[in-house]
From TrEMBL:
<keyword id="KW-0472">Membrane</keyword>
<keyword id="KW-1133">Transmembrane helix</keyword>
<dbReference type="InterPro" id="IPR021147">
    <property type="entry name" value="DUF697"/>
</dbReference>
<keyword id="KW-0812">Transmembrane</keyword>
<dbReference type="InterPro" id="IPR027417">
    <property type="entry name" value="P-loop_NTPase"/>
</dbReference>
<dbReference type="InterPro" id="IPR006073">
    <property type="entry name" value="GTP-bd"/>
</dbReference>
<feature type="domain" description="G">
    <location>
        <begin position="67"/>
        <end position="178"/>
    </location>
</feature>
<dbReference type="Pfam" id="PF05128">
    <property type="entry name" value="DUF697"/>
</dbReference>
<protein>
    <submittedName>
        <fullName>GTP-binding protein</fullName>
    </submittedName>
</protein>
<dbReference type="Pfam" id="PF01926">
    <property type="entry name" value="MMR_HSR1"/>
</dbReference>
<dbReference type="InterPro" id="IPR005225">
    <property type="entry name" value="Small_GTP-bd"/>
</dbReference>
Amino acid sequence: MGGKPPTEALEPANVPTTGDTHLQLASASLRQLLEDARIPDTIRSTLSEDYAQVRAMLDKLEHGHLHIAVFGRVSVGKSSLLNALLGKTAFSVSVLHGETRSVNMQQWEEYADGGLFLIDTPGINEIDGEARERMAHEVASRTDLLLFVVDSDLTDVEFQALKIVAAAHRPILLVVNKADRYTEDEQRQLRSILRTRTQGVIAPENIVFTTAQASRQSVIFIDEDGTERDGIRERPLNVGALKARLWDIVEAEGKTLAALNASLFAGDLSNALGQRILAVKRELGAKTIRLYCLGKGIAVALNPIPVADLVAAAAIDVGMVVHLSRLYGLSISRSEAGDLVRTVLAQMVLLMGAVWAVHLLSSALKISSVGLSTLLTGVAQGAVAWYSTLVVGRVAEQWLANGKSWGDAGPKLTVQQILDSLDRDSVLAEAREEILAYVRTSVKS
């Protein structure tokens, strides 16, 4: 991209420029996000907006577009500055506080390839600023170059916002607008102050003074004979220095900036997607585990044969682990699931021997009790079965999330951590209520 004649023909065949190489790598990373076959369709559908962002960024790269956004307080002249760069009124300029309500983007046609786009954003100190500031930060994360506009020394609000925006690791130009209000000496002093305050954040050459709106000023002229007369002084629009700096950056680094932005975006989004995918998996996993907890609890509570209910319970746990493995995209056989269940239960017996003694005792009591006592014993045992399945499910999730591995913790510590994270009494109480509710409903029907 660029306003100068193309030079690709002067380069050796099949040897891409550095910028082109960066673009190819960035595009490949974005395509990898889109085409990752390891993501189940059920999870991909819940993240449709995130994938739409990836497609938009990829489209931007493939068309060679470069985005330049402005940030700043209300009334510093952000919209006027963009209009001055465009050479026409395309962005809303109003005396109303906070006229810019949403992000607005316009193509900068003066640039030869037509690949530059200017983006206006709401003021960082507008009403409901938190929501709009989040919007501005979202734009910053997808923007290749930032213009942070002020009209004087940085206020505390501006300085804090500048540091937050700088965290996006995009190049930033600090634009001091309304420069016509300052004399040359005042401009030199202000430039020196800003260089000191923004050291390490803004490069000195990226502090630029502009006048985005022409103005007329009433003045008193004194003639040679000492006669005073009223007059008007024209203060012309002046964005030449800013244009020159932008052209230099775009010509020298345009493709690299677009690629860097896309790579940062891909990395950030990949991490965010990873977290969201894991969260969705855990949410779906929690629902799956609960269904199996209820199924196992009821099966154990209503089964009058002690040995048979324990065998059925183990089969239910194995089925749950197989179900969870598919959810995590790591399908395993029933034999492998059975090994995992036995490992978890063995660790639970070691860590909770007394609880499992009660479980076995209540199972034995089933054949010697009748009526209400049988029901209460069955419900108690069903609650314990519910709890054991919850532990097995949580441990299995951890094992699957680690890529079918115990990691450094090992099975014993993993089971212990899961047990410590659960309030056993609360889980057992909830299980008893759910099982009893099911039994009452079944009896009525």
